[in-house]
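Workshop exercise sheet. Pairs work together: one partner reads the sequence aloud, the other fills in the structure field after running the prediction. Swap roles for the next sheet.
Pair: D.N. / O.F.
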Amino acid sequence: MATVTKRELIERIAATTGLSRTQVKDALQNFLDEIILEIGKGNRLEFRDFGVFEVKTRAARRAQNPKTLERVDVPAKRTVKFKAGRRMRELLEGDAPATGPASVSSATSDAKPDTKPAKPRSSGFVENKPERAEPAATDADRAD
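Structure field:
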């Protein structure tokens, strides 16, 4: 899986639209800035067929540092949730990978991949994990 940068997107859009890279860069940056402003205000952004961005509040919780076993209070925080829209879901569930803008509009396959969804990444803290007991000293340890 490759990483696509904003610069690469700008070059692709400029090539397909005939606009200059500067015009595309300014328009794209303005678009992204507006998304950031609206999300910052707590507004929900809906782009039909693409997806929905919305702000969710994670509740405060008590966690445990797995290395030190110290209990840590994790404060409530706001985060952004993204839910894929219809065309994006169809493309992700389809058999063939997309090769360009035309393939996105024709992504209508009902086939689903045989893979399991990826496990969520851990933040480094473990919730509600029981305290670990120190291992008991053995006779071999005491002999030293």
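Discussion prompt: Strands lie at 45-47, 51-58, 61-64, 71-74, 77-84. What would you look at next?
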